[in-house]
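Risk mitigation, structural track. In case the binding assays with adenosine-5-diphosphoribose fail to produce interpretable data, a predicted complex structure has been prepared as a fallback.
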Amino acid sequence: MIGRQFQSRIVVLSGAGLSAESGLSTFRDAGGVWSRYDIRDVATPEGFLRDPSLVHTFYNARRMKLRQVKPNAAHCALAKLEDVCELAIITQNVDDLHERAGSHNVIHMHGELLSAICHNCGHRWPSPDELSADDICGRCGAQSVRPDVVWFGEIPYHLERINDLLLGADLFVSIGTSGAVSPANTFVSQAKSAGAKTIELNLESTEISDCFDDHRLGPATEIVPVWVDELMARGLHWR
Ligand code: APR
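Fallback model:
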């Protein structure tokens, strides 16, 4: 890792749009995940208790797909940026593409596809390719193994650490998210009120675009590498 040349604290919030060009579906675009599955069936604790096999089938398919794709130029550009400044990536994504691109400081606020957790005791372990309703927790023995993904109605992970990052950010960058889900869609306002500059990089305008100081529109694999290169060429000065 080359030495940190700059002390700028950049906080990125990434969403499904960042992984779209790697081949992973977004949720709310045309043909997205929620146009094919009912959130109540596969992304709520009630849905899991009602039909755990359906939930496992849904996440096993997404885990299988993840094994077949790889990080794209946007993931790689962010990993490069981390080498030259203090960068934290808060991701709503449950894929591991940031890590596979070389990013280290990644906070999965909605959990991770490649992790499993016991619904009964909270024990967590690396997920095998397939989970099933018959799996038994290795710590408490309960038959309540689930994907380690935060569902609607549950509290996202790492909120205290995220709050500290937002309070200390010099620049807040939203990439590939519709801003449809709370609390992620409040982060821009929190960072801004703490003095950060804010920029949205997205394929199209979103319902929170008005909250940002600056915008770049286009596919992430095009606009993110250009934005990172410009930022580095300017010595991370964006004001
Ligand atoms: N490049 C950049 N942005 C893109 C691209 C692309 N190639 N393709 C799509 N987008 C943008 C869309 O314009 C949209 O604004 O990415 C955004 C994807 O929005 P969503 O599908 O709502 O995904 P996301 O914002 O990550 O959803 C947040 O909702 O369902 C929950 O837990 C799930 O983490 C997810 C959360």
